[in-house]
């Protein structure tokens, strides 16, 4: 019997997987239950899933995952309250009954108030429904720009507020709503990818530092960590060290390590060599994470196994991208062995 990830990492941090309903049916469920002690809903807790039409909340798919987690002694990490993607169209339009119903919102005070009321209703419904059954939420996701000079992502949220103030509003509203139902321990995270990129990292850091200075209730930083074999582990580490200085909680929220699909005409041994290289990469990455266990609440892989990786469904198909510790056949890869047996 091979060691479980959760036992090996028990003294360090929780180990999570992003899942949907497919993953809680056998044989996937056996793999999930053996190795992981936390889940994130890959899609079922996003705004479009929770509130497809205004005021109409649909929790069934998300509940199935939370119920499963509780029945199996796992924690649930909430993803996500405010995002620019997978948010229903109505959210950025004038409501029914308004003279301009269905038209895009502008950026007047009235329009901003509509956005804030919607945020309050949405966060309030999540708080009411889940209370403290979900220990942390990504309150905002991906608000930092990929253009480091621009700093803030110029999303519809940003446009309507003509700046980043909506981020602070989101944390204050979420805190109020969770506190109102007695869920005062629920932790509020800001989540982003590319936090290992020093320029983007510093922009995120400055935003979080400013919010803390202003008394905005932000508890944690989520490092998505969609990386590849070319990503510097030193950069991943420097980011954790930098945020440690702010005294915030940290989690790795969406880890995967892309190795590229087998190239046209590439011989099998070359591809196998990349899988081995990936094993060494996971080994070194987790050795670093474990050194920073005091800083990390949890490390989550974005998909239970390679066959469930989002990288396989990008518009440009990458059918054999294999970024995770377990293979399509649910076998333990070199990446898994790198985590549990770093002596290899
Ligand atoms: O549910 C519909 C289905 O009804 C429809 O027939 C089908 C046809 O394309 O699409 C289904 O929706 C898909 C959805 O996943 C659920 O499977 C969307 O097209 C697809 O775009 C969506 O992809 C998700 C992606 O976020 C969308 O932004 C991925 O599964 C999910 O892994 C990915 O996760 C994100 C994190 O939330 C944030 N960080 C980056 C990460 C990777 O992109």
Brief description of this entry?
The chain is an alpha/beta fold and 344 residues long. It has 11 helices and 9 strands. An 8-stranded parallel barrel has the order 1-2-3-4-5-6-8-9, surrounded by 5 helices.
Explain what the structure shows:
Helix content is 38%, strand content 15%. The protein contains 11 helices and 9 strands. The protein has helices at residues 5-8, 28-35, 47-50, 60-71, 109-130, 156-161, 165-180, 198-213, 233-244, 268-291, 334-340, and strands at residues 14-19, 38-41, 75-82, 136-141, 187-192, 220-223, 226-228, 249-258, 296-301. An 8-stranded parallel barrel has the order 1-2-3-4-5-6-8-9, surrounded by 5 helices. Helix 10 (268-291) runs parallel beside helix 11. The chain is globular. The protein starts with a helix and ends with a helix. The structure holds ligand G3I. Ligand G3I is lined by residues 42-43, 85-86, 141, 193, 224, 254, 310.
Walk me through the topology.
Layout: H1 5-8, E1 14-19, H2 28-35, E2 38-41, H3 47-50, H4 60-71, E3 75-82, H5 109-130, E4 136-141, H6 156-161, H7 165-180, E5 187-192, H8 198-213, E6 220-223, E7 226-228, H9 233-244, E8 249-258, H10 268-291, E9 296-301, H11 334-340
Helix pairs in contact: 5-7, 10-11
Bound molecules: ligand G3I.
Number of domains: 1
At CATH level 2, the architecture is Alpha-Beta Barrel
Whole-number mean pLDDT: 96
Poorly predicted sequence stretches spanning 5 or more consecutive residues? none
Which compounds are bound in this model?
ligand G3I
Strand content: 15-25%
Number of strands: 9
Give the proportion of residues in helices: 25-40%
Provide the structure class.
alpha/beta
Radius of gyration: 20 Å
* N to C succession of SSEs: HEHEHHEHEHHEHEEHEHEH
CATH-level-4 superfamily name:
Glycosidases
Distance between the termini: 18 Å
Biggest β-sheet strands, sense, barrel? 8 strands, parallel, barrel
Question: What would the principal axes of the Cα set say about the shape?
Answer: globular
**Looking across the biggest beta sheet, what order are the strands in?**
1-2-3-4-5-6-8-9
């Amino acid at each position: 019997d091979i060691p479980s990830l959760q036992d090996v990492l028990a003294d360090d941090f929780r180990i999570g997987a992003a899942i949907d309903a497919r993953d809680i049916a056998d044989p996937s469920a056996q793999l999930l239950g053996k190795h992981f002690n936390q889940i994130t809903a890959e899609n079922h807790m996003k705004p479009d899933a929770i509130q497809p039409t205004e005021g109409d909340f649909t929790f069934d798919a998300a509940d199935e995952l939370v119920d499963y987690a509780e029945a199996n002694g796992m924690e649930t990490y909430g993803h996500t309250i405010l995002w620019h993607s997978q948010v229903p169209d109505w959210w950025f339009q004038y409501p029914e009954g308004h003279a301009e119903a269905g038209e895009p919102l502008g950026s007047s005070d009235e329009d901003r108030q509509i956005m804030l009321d919607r945020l309050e209703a949405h966060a309030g419904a999540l708080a009411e429904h889940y209370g403290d059954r979900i220990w942390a939420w990504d309150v905002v996701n991906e608000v930092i720009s990929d253009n480091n000079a621009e700093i803030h992502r110029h999303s519809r949220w940003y446009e309507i507020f003509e700046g980043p103030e909506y981020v602070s509003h989101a944390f204050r509203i979420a805190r109020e709503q969770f506190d109102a139902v007695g869920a005062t321990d629920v932790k509020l995270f800001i989540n982003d990818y590319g936090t290992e990129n020093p320029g983007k990292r510093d922009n995120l850091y400055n935003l979080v530092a400013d919010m803390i200075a202003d008394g905005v209730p932000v508890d944690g930083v989520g490092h998505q960590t969609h990386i590849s074999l070319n990503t510097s582990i030193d950069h991943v580490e420097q980011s954790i060290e930098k945020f440690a200085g702010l005294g915030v909680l940290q989690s790795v929220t969406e880890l995967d390590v892309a190795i590229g699909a087998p190239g046209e005409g590439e011989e099998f041994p070359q591809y196998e060599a990349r899988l081995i290289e990936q094993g060494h990469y996971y080994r070194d990455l987790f050795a670093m994470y474990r050194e920073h266990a005091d800083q990390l609440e949890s490390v989550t892989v974005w998909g239970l196994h390679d066959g469930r990786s989002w990288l396989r469904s990008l518009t440009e198909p990458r059918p054999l991208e294999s970024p995770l510790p377990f293979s399509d056949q649910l076998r333990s890869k070199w990446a898994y062995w790198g985590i549990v047996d770093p002596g290899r």
